[in-house]
Each structure stands twice: as C-alpha cells, then as structure tokens.
Amino acid sequence: MRIAAAVLAGAVLAMLTSFGVVRVVTTSEKDPVAKPLYNYGTR
Amino acid sequence: MRGRHTVVAAGTGLVLGALAIGPGLAPGFVLSYDMVFVPRPAFSRATFGLTGMLPRHVPSDAVVTALSHLAPADLVQKAILLAIFVLACASASTLVPSDRLLPRLAAGVVYAWNPFVAERLLLGQWALLLGYAALPLVVAAAARGDHRWLALALLPAAIGGFAALAVSGLVALIVGRRNGRSLLATAAILLLVALPWLVPSLLRVSVAPADPAGVAAFAARADTPFGTLGSLLLLGGAWNAETVPGGYGGLVTSLVWLLVVAVAVVAYVRGDRIRGLGAAAAAGFALAALGAVAPGVLRGAIGLWPGFALLRDGQQYLAPVAVVVAVGTGRAVDRLPAWTAPALLLPLLLLPGLAWGAGGRLRAAHYPADWSRARAMVAAAPGDVLVLPWEAYRAYPWNGGRRVLDPLPRFLPARVVINDGVRVATARGRAMGLAAEDPRTRELDALVRSGAPLTAALAAHGVRYVAIDSGPPDGRLAGAERLIAGPDLALYRLPRVVAAHEAHPAQWPVYLAWFITFATFIWSVRVPTSNLGSRSLQKES
Question: What's the CA gap between B466 and B464, in Å, rounded?
C-alpha cells in the first residue's frame, strides 16, 4: 500500500515538475509585457 | 529537540535562499526595481532622510552603509537576501505546535517560498521582506505578551523601515491587544523602534505630498485566473505585472495552490489558533484589497491625511495571511505520515519561477568604469549633481536591461537630484505619472522639462554637475565642460555655479531618535533567557 502511494505521489510530483519547467521555459522565451525604458512597472 | 528543528529549518531556508537568488550570488550587485546596493556607500543627509524623497529608505540604507564599512557591499547584499530566507523558514517553523520536524519544515518552506516572497523580491523590496521574515517571531512575542522579546523580534522590521514596520506593527497591535496596558506597551515599543524614520518624516511633513494617483497605480491586481481577491488569497496580486514569476498564474498550478491554501486555512481554523492572528490576517487581507475594491475610500483617506498613502501598495499587508497559511500547512502536514516528506517540495513545484534568480531576473551586475570615474571626480570637487534623463527608473544594458531605481543618488558622494516622480504603465499602454517628492526635484521640474538650455539655469540653482546615465547626450548643455563621455555615463561640469540654498531640518532630533531606538534594542536584548520559548502562546478557541 505504501509503495503504491509512494509511486502515485512520485508520479504526481514528476508531472507537476515537468509542467512547471515547461511553463517557465515557455514564459521566459517571450517578453510578457512591453517594457518602456523608464517606467517603474506595468500593471 | 525544538531547537534542533529550528536549526534544520534555518538550513532549509539557506538552501531555499541559494536556490532563489541563484546567479545573484555571483560577485556584483543584484539591481532589481527598488533594490539598489552600491559599492562603498557613504553616510549623507539623504541616508537619514534629511533631504531628498520621503524616508522610505530609512533606516535600511543606514544599516547597509554601516555594514558596508565592515564587508564589501555586494557581500552585504547577498548576506541580507539569504538571511531573509533563513529567518523566514526558521521563524515560521517555530509557530507550529508539533514535536515533529516535518510539519515545522512544511510551514517554513511555505512561508519562505510563495508568490508574496517571489513578487516582493523581484520588486526589490528586501527591506519589507526582512520584516516579513521575522513576522512569525513578532506574532509569538505579541501573543505571549512579552514586550522585551517583542522589541527584539521587531528589529528586522525596524531595519526595514516604513513599510515593514507598518505591517509588523499592525500584527503586533492586533495579536497583543489582551488589555489596555498591553496595547499601550506594544504601541510604545512600535513608536520607539520607528523613530529613525518617523522623526525625519515629521520634520519634513510640509514637503511630503501624497499623490492619490498612486492608489490606482499600486492597487493589487489579478495574477491568477481567480481575480484580484482570489490572487490575494493565494498570496500574490502585487501591482506590477512585470514581477510575476515565470510560470505562475496558470490554471492548473493556481488550482493546486488554491487547494493547498484552502487546506491550510481550514487546518488553522480547526486547530488551536494563536490569539489574534486570524484577526490580523483578516485585517491584512482587507487592507490588501482596499485599493482595488474601494479606491475612492483610500483616495479620500489620503486626501484627509497623507499618511494613509502607506496603504496604497496594499498587497504588502498580506504578510499575516502568509503566517496563517504557513502555520495551517504545518498543522495539516502534522496529520500525515513521514513518508509524505517529499510533499515539502510542493511549493517549489507550484512556483518554479522563483528558482535560479527567478529565472535569471536576479543576476549580479557590475557598475561600469565610467561610474567609478564620475564618483572620483565628484568626490574631488564636491557639488550638487542633477541626473538626466529626467526619470526615476532605468533599464541599463550593463544590468541586462532589468529595471532598477537610478542608483546614482547612492553611488555618488553628493546631493544628487533625480526626478523621483515615478511612472507606471497600464495594460492599455497608457502611463500614470506620480508627483515627485523631493522638493529640489519639484523646484527644477518645470525648467528641466521646458526644453530650454540648461547650463546657466541649472548653475543658477546650485547644480554643479549633470550626469547622463542613459540614452543619448542632451543637447541643452552647451557651455558645460564634458568631463566623462563614456558609453555608460556622461558627466558635465557647469560653469559659474551659484551656491545652493536648500533648507534642511535640524539634525539633532534625528540623532536623538537613533539613540532612543538603540537604547530600546539594548533593553530588549537584556531578556532573561528563561523567558525565551518557555512560555506557550496564548490560544483562542
């Protein structure tokens, strides 16, 4: 039972990890917002 | 056993900090939005809030300047950033009423690695995060009614200054309100540790505008699919879309994170609650949402008293909500068996964008050689410096184009005038401009914006140098001597400078304020060790 639970938890963690990495790589490839040179930030 | 757990939590915090800052730990300075550290900073009137903009940087700049006399300033910066994670993880772990390590670590990890920390770190608000990191200690001390320990627990927030102490003060007053006497004692301690920035603020209250436009600029915003209030509940929602970590805010990760937060809140509410912490979190959430939900109320309040401008950037008041989520997470994990330990990684998996310097956005950079030459020249023949372009923030190529508050006022050993009126762009491409705070900036604003020749006019206002640290040369400086014409900075010396007559408040009240605050902390250190950790937190059912 414990082994099955561990396998399940591992699978969920692996899926979340790969999902997170893909998200980060995807978002870092493009500039998410226009960044005028002298602004404090963008809402 | 609990002491050993705290040490393990501190070590975990160190690992998390190293993971979060990543490339920022290389030699050089991490410059991101409000985070400005410079090599060999010097004490000046500005350091103590006696000139320039409102003293938001007091006393954090003074502490950094003092520490930078003991170690290189870039090392000081890295130590402070790492200390935030160490303190956050360790302090949150102490609030979990369990003898097991796992739940305590879970609380520490959630408290040190969440959207609030990520967004505020990217925004460069290390001073606020310093207070955030010690907030669980403030909660513990206030709940015990131990005022000496409370003063000591407030030290990081006191170093952070203005915003950090406002958040910690709110929590301390609500959690520590057992009776009138206790409330007065807590308020007195807060007043004593706030004096270094409170006194210069009061001395210069006549020059302190509070632009109500800041309410719209700095109100919380949605960074998840759950709207502004939902985003705040998930500890995100900072005003700046540029500081949302990569990968955060997607539907799947937001749903899982929402589940974690919901379980944590339920676990906290169903367990033995720390007296007043729930109320403090509710108040913090209400303040965080105020600018977004009822901006007219906040604008009206600022119109009545400019001090309410402290509530414009509301999301920072989420810190007590983060404490509740952390403690609740610890309690929920306390019901799980030991083999679930890998679940400690869940916050990292839900917020991977904070890792490795937030995806490379917190890289270390070196100040250009032109800047060092300018500092040497200004030091050799001191005089006031005006910085162009007439804007507050920069995106220097040598800093990877990452946005940062202009560091020249801290870098140069002189009175440096910049336009401290910031601009915030909206999603529709428009810009909201906020009024400048520095009286000297306001005095020169019309002149600099006019397009007229600047050399004689600025010299007549006591400006000896003009530094251009971004963009092309300014054609309005005919007749000025160009001392440096490098790729990263141009420095001009103006002829026939008239001595500036800038009104300064008296310095002795500020020195007295610092002395009183020092004395308060020395008093707090004299806590009998038997008092530390021996008393249990007062609970509410």
Answer: 7
